Every structure is written in C-alpha cells, then in structure tokens.
C-alpha cells in the first residue's frame, strides 16, 4: 500500500476491529502516535500519544478509544492537527499495536482489523491489518515536515513482533525509502 501527497493540515486516523468471540479474552487494539524532534527525527520519540499518554500541546489527540472493539463505527480515533504542531517536531509516526495480556495475539487472529487515514471526507489511505497476519503491531503512517513547513504523508505497512510498550520505542527507528 502506498500513498503520497503534500500539505496536510488536519488528519484523522480511524481504527476498527470486531470483538473477540464470546467467552474469549477481549481483543484490545491501540492507536499509537510518536512525535520525533526535528533535530533528531530517527532518535527516541519526544512524546507518545495513546490511551494513557497525551501530547503536551494537544495537537495530536486520541478522540476515542476502545478496550474490546465493541460498538459501531470506528473503535479508536486519532486526530492530528498538523498545522499546529511546533516546528521543534519534524516527524510523526502512527501505528497500531495489540495488547498482549495472555497468549500471543497477532492481527491474523483479530476479526476485521482495519484503519483509515482521512483528511475531512477524503480517504488518504486504507489499511487491512489482516494482511500482516503474523504481526502484533504495525506502522501505518509517517508524516514528515518538509523544508517549506508542510507535512508529507507516507503510507506504511510494516509489521512488528512487539507489544504496545515495546512497539512505541521502536516504531520510529525504520528509515523509509
Ligand atoms: Ca485500545
């Protein structure tokens, strides 16, 4: 899956999945965003945004979160107000990780794990995470600030074998083409 376009201002990322079968432990997927310093865009994240962590300036917000995939429509929604992000941040990576409280749970065992990347009503990218059946986490989008100050989106589909905490630390290490 590839996407490439420029000048994004406000982007929504919507994650959905279906609940675990009755009687089975809940399937809990998490959207995770990591912001990296402009001075060191492939170093450690400056901050993380997920169900338990907020952006210090409120420019990246988890609008909705779910622990079990129940309910209608998107289960988790992340909004990135890119036009308000401080120039001290040069790169933002967004991914999805599956909580691993018991037996290993990869995307292939979660029902209909999907993510949409939207700007307004325009669909920028669509991800079927079942296409990474053995992974327990995946990066889906990378935003890079251009010299002109605009944000470029690269659509990713890179699987990881990591729980959400491990994933948050390594999700930005890969340098894409
Ligand atoms: Ca969750």
UniProtKB/TrEMBL annotation:
* Superkingdom: Bacteria
Q: What is this protein called?
A: TerD family protein
Domain (TerD): residue spans on this chain: 6-163
Q: Which family does it belong to?
A: Belongs to the CAPAB/TerDEXZ family.
Species name: Streptomyces polyrhachis
Instruction: Name a Pfam family for this protein.
Output: TerD
Q: Which InterPro entries match?
A: Stress/Tellurium_Resist, TerD
Q: What is the lineage of its organism?
A: Bacteria, Bacillati, Actinomycetota, Actinomycetes, Kitasatosporales
């Amino acid at each position: 899956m590839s996407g490439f376009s420029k000048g994004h201002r406000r982007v929504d990322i919507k994650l959905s999945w279906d609940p675990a079968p009755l009687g089975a432990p809940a399937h809990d997927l998490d959207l995770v965003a990591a912001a990296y310093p402009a001075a060191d865009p492939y170093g450690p994240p400056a901050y993380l945004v997920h169900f338990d962590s907020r952006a210090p300036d409120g420019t990246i917000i988890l609008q909705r979160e779910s622990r079990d995939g129940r309910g209608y429509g998107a289960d988790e929604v992340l909004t990135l107000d890119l036009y308000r992000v401080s120039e001290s941040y040069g790169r933002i990576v967004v991914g999805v990780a599956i909580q691993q409280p018991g037996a290993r749970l990869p995307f292939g065992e979660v029902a209909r794990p999907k993510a949409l990347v939207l700007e307004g009503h325009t669909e920028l990218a669509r991800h079927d995470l079942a296409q990474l059946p053995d992974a327990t986490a995946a990066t889906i989008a990378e935003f890079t600030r251009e010299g002109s100050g605009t944000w470029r989106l690269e659509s990713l589909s890179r699987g990881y074998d990591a729980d959400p905490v491990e994933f948050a630390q390594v999700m930005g290490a890969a340098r894409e083409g």
